[in-house]
Specification:
The chain is an alpha+beta fold. The strands form two sheets. Strands 1-2-3-7-6 form a five-stranded mixed beta sheet. Strands 4-5 form a two-stranded antiparallel ribbon. The relative contact order is 0.19.
Length: 139
């Protein structure tokens, strides 16, 4: 099973919805946003080859929060460090790493990364047609 970008976004949205049931949570791109809200979007994805058919795929997300005052935004950031430390993605627990936050123009930008190992499908090789083996034991 391979984890898709949408699986990662859905997992983060589900974790936020479980932690903040009264909050408005959107996945980017959202057409209409009603403040205060949490907006989950993907910043960048990458994949690096490790060994053979094994790759490490990285998903970096941005969670934007509008809460009102600066102290409310900082309290929201503290909560996100806890909520996004472990998130269930594709049925498996995943650890968030590289977490940091920044408040810009009254909006909290919280970034977090999730890494997954991906195994690429093996190339189908032609099978051997026939093989006959005869053997004898020397006495």
């Amino acid at each position: 099973m391979s984890v898709t970008v949408q699986d990662v976004i859905d997992g983060v949205v589900a974790a936020l919805a479980a932690a903040y049931p009264e909050a408005r949570i959107y996945a980017a791109p959202a057409d209409v946003l009603v403040a205060p809200y949490y907006l989950v979007g993907i910043l960048e994805c990458g994949q690096t080859r490790e060994t053979g058919r094994r790759y490490l795929r990285t998903h970096k997300l941005d969670v934007q929060v509008t809460a009102g005052t600066a102290s409310e935004l900082l309290a929201a950031a503290e909560g996100l460090y806890t909520v996004l430390s472990y998130v269930t993605i594709g049925g498996l627990p995943c650890r968030g790493k590289g977490m940091k936050h920044q408040v810009t123009e009254g909006v909290l930008h919280f970034t977090v990364e999730f890494d997954f190992h991906v195994l690429q499908a093996a190339e189908a090789l032609p099978k051997m047609q026939e093989y006959t083996h005869k053997g004898a034991i020397k006495q």
